[in-house]
């Protein structure tokens, strides 16, 4: 696939992710915390049942929004408008992923979380190779195959969690109460931080003649993102234990930092030849972009470990503030620095923002721990 065509796919996916980030209002985050505090499997299944209803409502809203996006693009770019329509059967993937991650974190089902993180890629990559090598690849085929595979796997995982749809009224009341105190604070923060993640793809598309740079940059993000998973998984694994601990054990912090640094060094050694092997010489620049972005993702992942500790203690305002700082800097960077330095501006923005995010969360963590000691 040519860089402009790949960029078109990522442009559409960016907008879908951007819209999806507005639709959940913190309820999944609140549901995860209620499950973490609960010792009753039946109650956890009821929480999942309420979350499924919220998920279905969000899916309907997302589908309507995509039809509007298609109409808005129809006049000046019919190909993009067509991709929005084509994506309708699989556009729910970001919402399914969010539900899967939050429920597995809340239930401390690390096996399911690992499956949700890794299994879609293990299925998609060989399947994509077989299909693309036999019938070729286009924007439509890639969009349907990639998100289609992911969506089917997440639906299977959701069914396996056995959500319960009986006696949901008191559960909804508890979830609503928790969301008012906790989830909405994280929603405001994540809205600023997560939603602004997709501005880079849109601003790069605006400041360039085609979507080639969108494709290069978003592919760099995709190959670098796993660096953040390792420290984040540590935070997710200990989420339930964190709720009863006065601080994160020092050995966990040291071990996570060392493992993150080692994985980053290994990534820097293999990323450039790996990109050339998996793609082609036309995508060589992705290796350079990803090398710089690795710093940002390692910092963000380490910040997420402290994020999970603070969330386990209902410190939603602290996490919200760190997220707002991150998102505000991204808005500035993705407009000013991208206009000035193009893709290099987007990379510099990521590094600055994730450094600020990490520093802010460490500050709030240390302040919270000191308060508990008094």
Overview of the molecule:
This protein has 16 helices and no strands. Helix content is 84%, strand content 0%. The mean pLDDT is 86. It has 374 residues and is mostly helical.
Unreliable spans: none
Report the β-strand fraction as a percent range: under 5%
Instruction: State the major sheet.
Output: none
Integer-rounded radius of gyration = 20 Å
Number of distinct beta strands: 0
Portion in helices? over 70%
Count of discrete alpha- or pi-helical segments spanning 4 or more residues:
16
Mean of pLDDT: 86
Structure characteristics:
single chain, 374 residues, globular, mainly alpha, 16 helices
In short:
The protein has 374 residues and is mostly helical. It is built from 16 helices and no strands.
Question: Could you give the topology of this structure?
Answer:
Layout: H1 3-20, H2 27-37, H3 41-73, H4 78-86, H5 93-106, H6 110-135, H7 139-160, H8 169-197, H9 199-207, H10 212-224, H11 226-237, H12 239-242, H13 250-278, H14 285-312, H15 316-341, H16 343-373
């Amino acid at each position: 696939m040519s860089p402009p065509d790949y960029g078109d796919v990522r442009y559409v996916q960016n907008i879908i992710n951007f819209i999806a980030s507005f639709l959940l209002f913190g309820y999944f985050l609140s549901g995860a915390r209620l499950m973490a505090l609960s010792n009753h499997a039946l109650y956890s299944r009821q929480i999942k049942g309420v979350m499924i209803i919220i998920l279905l409502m969000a899916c309907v809203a997302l589908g309507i929004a995509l039809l509007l996006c298609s109409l808005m693009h129809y006049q000046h770019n019919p190909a993009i408008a067509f991709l929005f329509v084509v994506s309708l059967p699989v556009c729910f993937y970001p919402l399914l992923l969010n539900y899967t991650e939050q429920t597995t974190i809340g239930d401390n089902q690390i096996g399911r979380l690992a499956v949700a993180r890794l299994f879609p890629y293990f299925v998609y990559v060989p399947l994509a190779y077989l299909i693309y090598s036999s019938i070729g690849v286009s924007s439509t085929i890639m969009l349907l195959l990639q998100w289609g595979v992911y969506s089917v796997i997440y639906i299977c995982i959701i069914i396996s969690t056995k959500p319960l749809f009986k006696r949901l009224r008191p559960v909804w009341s508890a979830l609503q109460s928790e969301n008012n105190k906790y989830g909405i604070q994280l929603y405001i923060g994540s809205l600023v931080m997560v939603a602004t993640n997709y501005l880079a793809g849109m601003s790069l598309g605006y400041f360039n003649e085609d979507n080639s740079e969108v494709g290069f940059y978003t592919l760099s993000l995709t190959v670098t993102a796993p660096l953040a998973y390792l420290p984040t998984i540590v935070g997710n694994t200990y989420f339930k234990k964190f709720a009863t601990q006065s601080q994160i054990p020092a050995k966990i912090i040291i071990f996570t930092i060392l493992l993150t640094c080692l994985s980053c060094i290994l990534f820097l050694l293999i990323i450039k030849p790996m990109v050339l092997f998996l793609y082609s010489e036309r995508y060589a620049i992705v290796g350079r972009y990803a090398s710089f972005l690795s710093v940002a993702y390692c910092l963000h992942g380490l910040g997420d470990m402290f994020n999970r500790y603070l969330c386990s203690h209902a410190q939603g305002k602290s996490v919200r503030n760190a997220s707002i700082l991150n998102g505000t800097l991204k808005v500035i960077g993705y407009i000013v620095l991208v206009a000035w330095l193009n893709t290099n501006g987007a990379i510099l923005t990521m590094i600055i923002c994730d450094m600020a995010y990490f520093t802010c969360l460490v500050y709030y963590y240390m302040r919270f721990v000191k308060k508990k000691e008094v």
